[in-house]
Amino acid sequence: MEKKATRESYGEALVQLAEKRSDLVVLDADLAAATKTGIFKKAYPDRFFDCGIAEANMMGVAAGIATTGKLVFASTFAMFAAGRAYEIIRNSIGYPHLNVKIGATHAGISVGEDGATHQCNEDIALMRTIPGMTVINPADDVEAKAAVMAMADFEGPTYMRFGRLAAPIFNDKDTYKFELGKGVTLRDGDDVTIVATGLMVAEALTAADTLRSEGVNARVINIHTIKPIDRDIIIKAAKETGRIVTVEEHSIIGGLGSAVCDVVCEACPVPVTKIGVMDTFGHSGPAPKLLEEFGLCAENIINVTKKFIGK
Amino acid sequence: MDAMIKKQLEVTATKVRMGIIEGVYNAKSGHPGGSLSIADTLTYLYFAKMNVDPENPLWAERDRLVLSKGHTAPALYSVLANRGFFPVEELKTLRHIGSRLQGHPVYKKVPGVDMTTGSLGQGISAACGMALSGKISNDSYKVYAVLGDGEIQEGQVWEAFMFAAHYQLDNLVAVIDNNGLQIDGRVKDVMSPYPIDEKLKAFGWHVILMDGHDFEAIEKAFDEAEKISGKPVAIIQKSIKGKGVSFMEDNVSWHGAAPNEEQYNTAMQELKAHLAQLEK
Questions:
Q1: Is A31 exposed, middle or buried (0-12, 13-18, 19+ CB in 10 A)?
Q2: In angstroms, what separates the C-alpha of A233 from chain B's closest C-alpha?
Q3: What is the pLDDT of residues B186-228, one digit of tens each?
Q4: pTM here?
Q5: Which of A36, A69, A219, B123 is most buried by its number of CB atoms within 10 A?
Q6: Are A138 and A224 in contact, with CB atoms under 8 Å apart?
């Protein structure tokens, strides 16, 4: 299967977007080469502004630009967007509900060799606590591009999470349609539901296919919009399959797993087990090895799921 | 400056101060000291300088003002109300449940407020964004940012100062209200930002020193600011915290405290007497 990092998709989508939005402005904080806004910078140098290594100011600048009606994307690593600039995002973007798109790349443990200081496993948790913030975590190239285009037309603060590691492209670019706030059922099944997001969706699909060959029919739901979350698809899955496994390249505290639990606890309590980074910091190493070590792989999803449903 | 205009501005500024005291007294909380120190400059900007339309507060071509020292909202609210953006009577609802006049300014909630502020150090960045946007699309509007001298202890402010100079935002004027006091005491004792002028010059800004309570000096400073091209302008205004209410002047205990009834009466009497003298 062809692969591409969603940060790459992000950079390419910005160029595509600029063709139809003459008011597009892109900011970065000295990471354009890594976040891939550099692709945009090369194509539209007049609409790209480097803010230097100053993320707090960048988020405030983005807020100011948004008040003048232009479409603005502010980009840096997830750690320095959601982490370092959290309070600026909350007070200068979230509270006035400004139309700023935050393109946060290098999310999760798959940052790899840079180690724990750069592996942001907390961004989803942080961003989803901000009232009115939309949180998007696309799973592959097709979805990432479609999400960027869709969110450009959406009015409101948005946090978009992209990855460094090349991710398998499983969506069909000719038929794929991004629907904000709608989960996508990728595999049907009644024994258990695997709810995954981002890089973990492809792993969940591999896991589900193996499980099926072993007689376990696992439903797979891709949640690209973590906030507002698709309550209906989760409640339906809870009712029809009775058990839910959540998988995310993020802390098990406050991320997709927590968001799913928030829904089922209130609406249809069923057992949920969470796969994610287990309240610990990451460390340096090649991304694929780290993903394996932290259980963010098909093999672990299979094992956890089988144990969870008593097979 | 024309003597009549000067007197009119002094009259308006006194009314603005009365609105500040009215608001903070009725709220039983708030920040009168820093509101009173910036009252003259805000009065000048909204009544004699800025291109704004109270009937159309979000008019795209308007000049913008970001009150980065957002805790002095009572001053901004009072100026806006006196300028006709909303009724002066509404100042009494400051900080009340259901009021538009939140403890710190909120964009789009209060007519005339151009940016949500309150968390110190953030407004200047937003002002930079507005100024940059104006540059991108060749708009003619000006952006004013008002910062406290304590506020510039925030690191983000210096990120913004660097940014503004780097992108040559000569459509941006930052006023630094140098009243010399912050919550914990004298700014120089808490965490000295001095010399502010030399630091800003080193950051690539054009710096103007101004007496923040003399309308002729204020006009001169903003006229000079307008002539500068290729770099942002900082106006460091020497001011008196609590200016206009004798017992509040240069007294740090009035940074964030409301007057009781007796103090309120004394303050209003002083301001009314000053007003009567001006209007004589």
A1: buried
A2: 35
A3: 999 999 999 999 999 999 999 999 999 999 999 999 999 999 9
A4: 0.97
A5: B123
A6: yes
Q: Which position among A8, A55, A143, A249 bears the catalytic label?
A: A55
Interface ipTM: 0.97
A55 is catalytic: yes
Is residue A311 over pLDDT 90? Answer: no
Residues A112 and A56 in one domain: yes
Residue A153 DSSP symbol? S
- Work out the pLDDT band at A239, boundaries 50, 70, 90: very high
Looking at residue B280, its pLDDT comes to 86
Output the CA angle A296-A300-A303, nearest 5 degrees. Answer: 160
Q: Are A205 and A220 in contact (CB under 8 A)?
A: yes
Assign 3-state DSSP to chain B and report helix, strand, coil percentages, each to 5. Answer: 50, 10, 40
Domain that holds residue A108: 3-168
The CA-atom distances, in angstroms, between B92 and each of B22, B25, B81 are: 6, 8, 11
3-class DSSP state for residue A275? Answer: strand
Contact B126 A95 (CB under 8 A): no
Q: Does pLDDT of B49 surpass 90?
A: yes
The reply to whether residue A57 touches residue B134, judged by beta carbons under 8 angstroms, is no
Rounded to whole angstroms, the Cα distance separating A10 from A31 reads 14
CB B231 within 8 A of CB B205: yes
Q: Does B1 touch chain A (CB under 8 A)?
A: no
B60 contacts in chain A (CB < 8 Å): 68-69
The CATH H-level superfamily of B3-279 is Thiamin diphosphate (ThDP)-binding fold, Pyr/PP domains (3.40.50.970)
pLDDT in tens, A83-134: 999 999 999 999 999 999 999 999 999 999 999 999 999 999 999 999 999 9
Q: Are residues A99 and A160 in the same domain?
A: yes
Instruction: Read off the tokens for A54.
Output: 């100053």
Please give the pLDDT value at position A223.
98
Q: Which of B116, B132, B156 is facing A96, going by the closest CB pair?
A: B116
Measured in angstroms, the CA of B130 and the nearest CA of chain A are apart by 5
* Domain annotation covers residue A176: no
C-beta of residue B236 within 8 angstroms of C-beta of residue B174: no
Pairing of strands B143-148, B172-178: parallel
pLDDT at B60: 97
The alpha carbon of residue A116 is apart from the nearest alpha carbon of chain B, in Å, by 25
